[in-house]
Design goal:
Length: 103
């Protein structure tokens, strides 16, 4: 159906799971650092702030979701289309502009 231009994909559940999975994997990877503010495998007086900072877990969730969305884009053949890819070289430029801001 995608070859004929029919594109309907419900990815809500997939993106919810990918977000949760990013947090779950972060917790599994840093489990020993998330048991308290101080003390981890590197020493009982070592701080854990950079591990229990919610931004670190959320970043892991975002990266997991980005990976899932990239897979969706590839499945739907919409990588580097509709402005999603790198910009092309302008073809309708007449030459250097004069007396105005640089183009």
């Amino acid at each position: 159906a995608i070859d004929y231009g029919v594109i309907k994909m419900n990815i809500d559940t997939d993106t919810q799971w990918s977000y949760w999975n990013g947090i779950k994997e972060f917790e599994a990877k840093h489990h020993d650092y998330l048991q308290g503010q101080m003390g981890n495998p590197e020493g009982k007086d070592k701080p854990n702030k950079k591990f229990y900072d919610p931004r670190a877990m959320l970043r892991s969730a975002e990266l997991s979701t980005i990976t899932r969305l990239q897979t969706c884009f590839e499945d739907l053949n919409c990588v580097q289309v509709c402005g999603l890819g790198p910009p092309g070289k302008p073809e309708n430029v007449l030459g250097p502009r004069r007396g105005a801001l640089p183009a």
